[in-house]
Specification:
The structure holds two protein chains of two kinds. Chain A is an alpha/beta fold. Chain A has a single domain, classed as Protocatechuate 4,5-dioxygenase, Chain B (3-Layer(aba) Sandwich), CATH 3.40.830. Chain A is 37% helix and 26% strand. Chain A contains eight helices and ten strands. By secondary structure, chain B is of the alpha/beta class. Chain B has a single domain, classed as Protocatechuate 4,5-dioxygenase, Chain B (3-Layer(aba) Sandwich). Chain B has a six-stranded mixed sheet with strand order 7-2-8-1-10-9, with helices on both faces. The chains are: A alpha/beta, B alpha/beta. The interface between A and B is medium-sized, with 28 and 29 residues. Bound molecules: fe (ii) ion. Fe (ii) ion (FE2) binds next to strand 2 of chain B.
């Protein structure tokens, strides 16, 4: 199997922008542990899918060799800017664009200066690939794609990397429960929006740690509905696809709230 | 200082295709034209806006989505390149805009006083969303009138249409109070498409108008029904039907700009002037104007006479 590492990580910028706030600092610390695991795995490429990069027509893949700049989040601009320097594995990205017809998906490469790379990709790449030395392939969340289609996309991308003889790290960027607190809060006492959301998050993380893939397939749709899981938890399906539906366990490096919604840094045992 | 007033409101949708079709120098992408009916509709709207000579344009855009309250642009000058995340092939626009920060602050304060969560956006590196920029270019390509930009809080989607639009109504009324107390002569811009069913593939030549038509007949019929009511001045009836329109035509007015604008104007029962209607990648777009000066609802007080 070409996949040498797999991570599920949050796309919220808050742990990146304000790690000195204790609840968010815990997530940042978990992210840093995942970053060390990433470096130790020596991947040739990171296959990244972020729920926050929305597409509505074709499936989109970044095909610009390098994207640099300063990103400001639409919601959390108060906490500062996110500098980014992203190197894209264009050979693999083009192969993905060309191949998705096989699974009935039209794809398009995105190669424009100033393209608004989403907050999730920038945060995840910043934590997991801090010097930008590992090339990435970034795929959009087409809002009309099902969990199954997303899983197929992840599987296909990993297969194509394998055909190119590359060691792959797969990263799904997105949250757990999706309800945020809708009033200004004291950020030091940030908490998951409800007990039910918290219970759901823990149940899903527990099932991931036990590698209960069949159970997860049954539970995730309910989790998505009841706990407003971030875009139906499709970022998990991206990972599952790349892992061909198999992993042996997982380690939760961090779990906690980001303004009420659920965030976890999870490293899969593969 | 004389009391400020709202001179007019425009329904001013933001398909980036219209900017692409026009080929202005600010946009990198080049086209052979396309969507002329809608672009000519905007040409007419530009003329009437010009005659009003407003101090400020206020725009509410569905593509600056915020979760924690309603946000207003609060940096005097914002510039940069706006690339549309969905249509980057069509819209890569270099913008440079001036914000009426004093009015924005007044809007924010009034919204808070009305019980809403509201915030000023003060980060100078902020990238203004493509909905705001597209609407502003289409209605006033000279960029010589200061603006106030409002985010779309996601309540209509997060809670439900009714509660979400109630918040937009409160925001609209707060906006009106801010305009009045700052003495501005203002124009409101609701950056919304009507029926929002769209095609899932773009033609090889995006501006190939032989491929352009309503994505769904139901959406088209709903658009015509709403436009007809609005042209007759049946505002109350249009707003009674709005939740059903939103559900059955997937209308983008759900995001709140349309309600915000009408709440600010006091839901006048006056005929709206349709400058034009057309589809863009299947979605229904109407450019309409409610001119409160022409309708005699506000006295036209030219800028000099107001001593502003
Ligand atoms: Fe839109």
């Amino acid at each position: 199997m070409p996949v040498v590492a797999a991570f599920l990580v949050p796309g919220s910028p808050l742990p990146r922008l304000k790690p000195d706030n204790i609840p968010w600092g815990r997530i940042a610390a978990g992210y840093q542990r995942a970053g060390r695991a990433m470096a130790a795995a020596h991947p040739d490429v990171i296959l990244m899918y972020s729920t926050q990069w929305l597409a509505v027509l074709d499936e989109l893949w970044l095909t610009r060799p390098r994207l640099t700049g300063l990103h400001v989040d639409d919601n959390w601009y108060d906490y500062g800017d996110l500098p980014f320097d992203i190197h894209v594995d264009t050979e693999l990205a083009h192969a993905c664009v060309a191949a998705t017809r096989r699974i009935g998906v039209n794809s398009r490469g995105v190669n424009f200066d100033g393209f608004p790379v989403d907050t999730g990709c920038i945060v995840a790449n910043g934590f997991l690939n801090p010097d930008g030395s590992i090339p990435v392939v970034m795929a959009a969340n087409n809002v009309y794609h099902s969990a199954e289609t997303t899983e197929q996309l992840g599987r296909l991308a990993a297969q194509l990397a394998d055909e190119q003889g590359k060691r792959v790290a797969v990263v799904g960027v997105g949250g757990l429960s999706g309800s945020i607190l809708r009033e200004e809060i004291d950020i030091r006492s940030d908490r998951i929006a409800s007990h039910d959301d918290d219970r759901w998050n823990r149940q899903i993380l527990d099932a991931i740690e036990r590698a209960d893939v069949n159970g997860l397939r049954k539970e995730v749709p309910e989790f998505a509905k009841t706990a407003r899981a971030d875009f139906g938890f499709k970022h998990f399906h991206w990972i599952l696809g790349a892992l061909q539906g198999k992993f042996y366990g997982a380690r939760t490096h961090a779990y906690g709230p980001v303004y009420g919604s659920g965030a976890a840094v999870v490293e899969f045992t593969i | 200082m004389a009391q400020g007033q709202i001179l007019a409101g425009y329904l001013a949708p933001h398909p980036p295709h219209l900017v692409y079709g026009e080929n202005p120098p600010q946009n990198e992408a080049r086209s052979e034209g396309g969507w002329e009916q809608l672009r000519w509709a905007y040409e007419r709207a530009r003329k009437t806006l010009d005659e009003l000579k407003p101090d400020v344009l206020l725009v509410h855009s569905p593509h600056w989505i915020t979760q924690l309250g309603h946000h207003m642009l609060g940096v005097r000058n914002l510039r940069g390149k706006s690339v549309d995340p969905i249509f980057p092939n069509l819209f890569r626009y270099n913008f440079d805009l001036t914000v009426d920060v004093e009015l924005a602050e007044a809007c924010c304060q009034e919204a808070r006083d009305a019980g809403l969560v509201a915030k000023m956006m003060r980060n100078p590196n902020f990238r203004v969303d493509y909905g705001t920029i597209t609407t502003l270019h289409l209605i006033r390509p000279q960029w010589d009138i200061p603006i106030v930009g409002f985010s779309a809080n996601n309540t209509p989607y997060y809670l439900n249409t009714k509660e979400g639009l109630h918040e937009m109504d409160v925001l609209g009324k707060a906006t009106r109070r801010a305009i009045e107390r700052t003495g501005r002569r203002a124009v409101m811009l609701a950056s919304n498409t009507f029926s929002h069913w769209h095609f899932h593939e773009e033609p090889a030549i995006p501006e190939d108008m032989s491929q352009e038509h309503p994505a769904r007949y139901e959406g088209y019929k709903w658009d015509m029904r709403m436009i007809e009511l609005l042209r007759k001045g049946h505002t109350r009836e249009a707003f009674r039907l709005l939740p059903q329109f939103i559900d059955e035509a997937f209308a983008e007015v759900k995001s709140g700009a349309f309600t915000w604008m009408f709440a600010a104007m006091g839901y006048p029962e006056i005929p709206g002037e349709l400058h034009g209607y057309g589809t863009v990648i299947g979605t229904g777009n109407a450019v309409m104007e409610w001119n409160l000066v022409k309708a005699g609802l506000v006295a036209d007080a030219p800028r000099a006479a107001m001593g502003a």
